[in-house]
Design brief:
- Its EC number is 6.3.5.7.
- It catalyses: L-glutamyl-tRNA(Gln) + L-glutamine + ATP + H2O = L-glutaminyl-tRNA(Gln) + L-glutamate + ADP + phosphate + H(+).
- Heterotrimer of A, B and C subunits.
- One of its GO terms (molecular function) is ATP binding.
- Pfam families: Amidase (PF01425).
- The protein is α/β, with parallel strands linked by helices.
- The chain has a single domain, classed as Alpha-Beta Complex (Amidase signature (AS) enzymes).
- Helix content is about 40%, strand content about 15%.
- The chain contains 16 helices and 11 strands.
- The chain has an 11-stranded mixed β-sheet, sandwiched between helices.
- Strand 7, helix 9 and strand 8 form a beta-alpha-beta unit.
- The two termini are about 15 Å apart.
Length: about 500
């Protein structure tokens, strides 16, 4: 493996700016790494080799001409989740319905990455339309966890997290509807951030659940995530849910946290996220992480958020209901897959045949559940009641943040489970997002940072912050990361087993 693929994003950018290495060399090293190991990991659905090298050359040209860097991440390679549109490249959302479809425009996130000089390597695998917790629901086959190729890399953004853990990219973009950035981060030993809802544009993000979806940064360090966060965040008039407010100072907070001082910070431990259902190794690693925060000067307080116990059922009414509405656009009439268009079928039959052939089992399950919850006579009992629970969860967060600066919990109740282990039990799969869903329902910021190993597999600590106060989580995460690395002899990611290289 090239040493260039082991560098953090901040280090790569600094070396490119100082002419110690070219962006083309860095990009080629990562493309070579993808060619060598992705046969085993299957993180990528599309590798955009020519355009990646062209983007890297443009950065090198700027450096050679003495022009200012487009951003602090100019020249750094990135893997883009295949739910964000990218002109000139397939955007499949992991579904046969959109196989081979190339959008005519870039998502705002994609545009901002390009403008920042970030080199997009390609599109990563995901659960179909972001519905899943394991990346087993992709129509193009599962992604595997580099820590153990028999295990899942989380979902729905398992391609992005696996690309980081396999050293195929130093940065990635994910999307988080119920934990799809944080849960993959936790089980692959990487950092995953769900920004405050509305602070990163959803324009060009193919919708699953419009009131919950949020794009965010994935990285191997807290600082790298913060640098990427500031590149992609900010108001966008093309997104009606975009918040017109300054981007929280997450990079400054990450640098402040790296001083290792948390004196004066109050950390709330959510009591509902403990007990039965949490693996012993996960609970132990999380408890040790909390004690590390205490050692850094933080005040630790137990906080009860009683409505969090209702988050999972509420989510699985709200999200499928919105999915039922959003996925109605895939009707075989305008773009994407078209089945039965031989002149012998009506438009309605073509729609039905296309959806039957194009959508996977999990997507069909959620569409049917959502359509039922929205149907006449059931709307108030199901969807309406779930929205009331959502309000109660928001109130729990408000009450908690009146007492503490951040809340912490395990990111996920278990480490990475084996591929195929939960595919026959949807409820067991859904429980992987038990701790992450409340922040999606409330819209506040949350991130996952590696906090140890259990039976040789990564464990994540979730840090939740109030809306528009994302910097609080970054400060705590950076301080913890520094202390953990010092105590454990370096970053956990360095313990990923070496992957078999293709010949």
């Amino acid at each position: 493996m090239s040493e260039l693929t082991r560098l953090d994003a901040a280090d790569i950018a600094a070396k490119v700016a100082a002419k110690e290495v070219s962006a083309v060399e860095v990009t080629q090293a990562h493309l070579d790494r993808i060619a060598a190991v992705d046969h085993a990991v299957h993180a990528f659905l599309h590798v955009d080799t020519d355009r990646a090298l062209a983007a890297a050359k443009a950065v090198d040209d700027d450096v050679a001409a003495g022009r200012p860097a487009a951003s602090p991440l100019a020249g750094v390679p990135l893997a883009l989740k295949d739910v964000l549109t990218m002109q000139g490249a397939p955007t499949t959302c992991g579904s046969k319905v959109l196989e081979h479809w190339q959008p005519p425009y870039d998502a705002t996130v994609t545009q901002r990455l390009r403008a920042a000089g970030v080199v997009i390597l390609g599109k990563t695998n995901m659960d179909e339309f972001a519905m899943g917790s394991s990346t087993e629901n992709s129509a193009f086959g599962p992604t595997r966890n580099p820590w153990d190729l028999d295990r899942i890399p989380g979902g729905s953004g398992g391609g992005s997290s696996a690309a980081l853990a396999a050293f195929e990219a130093p940065l990635a973009i994910g999307t988080d509807t119920g934990g799809s950035i944080r849960q993959p981060g936790a089980v692959t030993g990487t950092v995953g951030v769900k920004p405050t809802y509305g602070t990163v544009s959803r324009f060009g993000l193919v919708a699953f659940s419009s009131s919950l979806d949020q794009a965010g940064p994935c990285a191997r360090t807290v600082l790298d995530a913060a640098l990427l966060h500031e590149v992609i965040a900010g108001h966008d008039p093309l997104d009606s849910t975009s918040i017109d407010a300054p981007v929280p100072p997450v990079v400054a907070a990450a640098r402040e946290g790296a001083t290792g001082d948390l004196k004066g910070v109050k950390v709330g431990v959510v009591t509902e996220f403990a007990g039965d259902g949490y693996e012993h190794g996960v609970a132990e690693a999380f408890a040790a992480a909390v004690e590390q925060l205490r050692a850094l000067g933080a005040e630790i307080v137990e906080v009860s958020c009683p409505s969090f116990d209702l988050a999972l059922p509420a989510y699985y009414l709200i999200a499928p209901s919105e999915a039922s509405s959003n996925l109605a656009r895939f009707d075989a009439m305008r773009y994407g897959l078209r089945v039965g268009d031989d002149g012998g079928h009506s438009a309605e039959e073509v729609m039905s045949l296309t959806r039957a052939a194009g959508f996977g089992a999990e997507v069909k399950r959620r569409i049917m559940l959502g359509t039922y919850a929205l149907s006449a006579g059931y709307y108030d009992a199901y969807y309406g009641s779930a929205q009331k629970v959502r309000t109660l969860i928001m109130r729990d967060f408000d009450a908690a943040f009146a007492q503490v600066d951040v809340l912490v919990s395990p990111t996920t109740p278990t480490t990475a489970f084996k591929i195929g282990e939960r595919t026959a039990d949807p409820m067991a799969m859904y429980r992987a997002d038990l701790c992450t869903i409340p922040s999606n329902l409330a819209g506040n910021a949350a991130l996952s940072v590696p906090c140890g190993l259990a039976d040789g597999l990564p464990v994540g600590m979730q840090i939740m912050s109030p809306a528009l106060q994302d910097q609080r989580g970054y400060r705590v995460a950076a301080a913890y990361e520094l202390a953990r690395n010092a105590a454990q002899g370096g970053p956990l990611i360095n313990r990923v087993p070496e992957l078999e290289v293709a010949h």
